[in-house]
Amino acid sequence: MPTLMRLSELVNEIQDTIESRFEGAAYWINVEITDVKKYADKKWCFLKFIEKEGLSITTEIKGVFWGGTFHHIEKFERQTGQLFSNGLQISCLVRVRFHKRYGLTLEVLEIDLAYALGKLAIEREAVLNRLQKENPEQIQLIDGRFVTFNNLLPLPIVMQRIALITAPASDGQRDFLQELEKNRYGYAFDVREYLVQIQGDQSSGLIREQLQLILTEKVVFDVVIIVRGGGSQTDFKPFDDYELSKDVACFPIPILTGIGHDRNTSIVDLMARANKTPTKAAATVIDHNLSFEQELLSLTDRFFKGVNEILDQKSLALRTLKTDFTIALSLYFKNRKHELDAITRLVKNLSPAMLLTKGFAIVMQQDMIITDPSKIEKQTAIKTILKSTIIHSNVTEKTPYENQPEL
Amino acid sequence: MKTNLSYNNAFSVLEKLVAQMESDEIQVDELAEKVKQANELISFCEKKLRTVEKEVKKAIGD
After folding, report:
1. Over the range A203-224, which residues count as b (16 or more CB within 10 Å of their CB) and which as e?
2. Nearest neighbour of B4 by CB, restricted to A222, A253, A299
3. Chains A and B: how many Cβ contacts under 8 Å?
4. Are the CB atoms for A193 and A166 separated by under 8 Å?
5. CB distance from A219 to chain B under 8 Å?
6. Does the CB of A163 have a partner CB in chain B at under 8 Å?
7. Are the beta carbons of A48 and A63 closer than 8 angstroms?
């Protein structure tokens, strides 16, 4: 009859063996994770570590993050913009634990961020290179900047009809719309929303679908805006996807992004016109329209300045004309008066009264002025009117007199 | 790709008017007409900037 052990005795032995072998040891492993279950309120995370050969899993063991190390997950997500979830390949520090109820697990002490970031950077580089290589007409790297078909498209002078791609009931959506609505210039916008869950593997495909949908709409959009709020628990991997980035680079309507991420710009940002956050994207739109209005007002200014100048010119010309005319008229009358005066003086000087004062005489016979001396007969009475005397006399003789007027 | 045709049109007509006004091509009796035209273009743009068929308010209210 074999010795019967109690289960706990056997399991304790297993535990002792493991603990003595692995006591105080920690190991860095390079591993794929799956079955990730996070309990953010308790700060626990349960997962499975696996190793594959081809598509089949050859090795598998449970993993766990307890309260003290849970923050590594949060830091990982924040710094890489990637969700800590199934399919991820990470490098982490673990220690071996055996619990008599829950069995064997690897407790995670630390995640190698540098490894994760490095890996991300390599993946990004690969996607960027492929984008340039396979789309040389539409995507080019010039002077360290990505110049694409889309970001070269001229923006309409006013952006009012907006196609907004965003996650429903999200910070990104709310921030963008609020900023647009509360603009202090009173600008109005027609925003059509294309709602998409921007989380997980499917999202880049979903965003691509929305882009295609926008192209089929009858209404014409000035611009397409893709926004994504920041904060933890957010997944930016969709925005590094090759196919989505290519669609964005080749899209025929200008695309603006407002993808809030602390660290770096996503590939989609590089293919379009990027803004750091949804709020800044809205501000860009508002400023753009403000520029237009300022140019409009400047034109208005110039126009009315021009009007006033013309009016001033014409007014000045009119006044000058009036002055010239007045002067000419005045001169005219002055001249005519001079002439009149001259004639008046002349006439006055030639009047009989004037002649008398000068000592000339008027000869009268029988109350008639004699101008023709042949009419005067000898022995007739004549009156000679001088200045203040009339001389009454009788004609005694008439003799000719030669008058020389040139003297 | 379509652009905002009416803004573009209004703006370029206004630019032409300004050019005319600044080059003294305009006679005094044309002045009133040109001023009227400019005012119409300006208020068209100003109004259009601030009016759309559907307001953003509705979108937030959803």
Report:
1. bbebbbebbeebeeeeeebbbb
2. A222
3. 96
4. yes
5. no
6. no
7. yes
- A180: nearest Cα among B33, B15, B24, B52: B52
Model confidence at B62, in pLDDT bands (50, 70, 90)? Answer: very low
Substitution target in B8, B21, B62 with the highest count of A β-carbons within 10 Å is B21
Chain B (12-41) residues lying within 8 Å, Cβ to Cβ, of chain A: 14-15, 17-18, 21-22, 24, 26, 28, 31, 34-35, 38
Per the document, the length of chain B is: 62
Q: Which two tokens stand for residue A11?
A: 């399991």
Could you read off the pLDDT of A245-255 as tens digits, one per residue? 999 999 999 99
* Dist. CA A327–CA A335, nearest whole Å: 12
User: Is the pLDDT score of A389 beyond 80?
Assistant: yes
A82: phi then psi, degrees, rounded to nearest 5 = -115, 145
State whether residue B42 sits within 8 Å of chain A by CB.
yes
pLDDT in tens, A187-226: 999 999 999 988 777 889 999 999 999 999 988 999 999 9
What are the tokens at B2?
A: 């379509």
Determine contact: A180 vs chain B, CB below 8 A. Answer: yes
pLDDT at B2 over 60: no
Search chain A and give the residue with CA nearest B51: A188
pLDDT band at A290 (very low <50, low <70, confident <90, very high): very high
Whether A141 and A270 have beta carbons less than 8 Å apart is answered as no
- Dihedral over Cα of A246, A252, A256, A259: its sign: negative
pTM of the model as a whole: 0.73
Tokens of A245: 């980035």
Asked if A217 is an interface residue toward chain B (Cβ–Cβ < 8 A), one would say no
Q: Which residues of B touch A302 (CB under 8 A)?
A: 18, 21-22
Using CA atoms in the order A371, A373, A379, A384, what is the torsion angle rounded to 10 degrees? 40
DSSP codes joined into one string, A272-290: SEEESSHHHHHHHHHHHHH
Q: Specify the residue for token string 């598998």.
A: A60
Touching check for A293 and chain B: CB below 8 Å? yes
- Distance from the B49 Cα atom to the nearest Cα atom in chain A, whole angstroms: 5
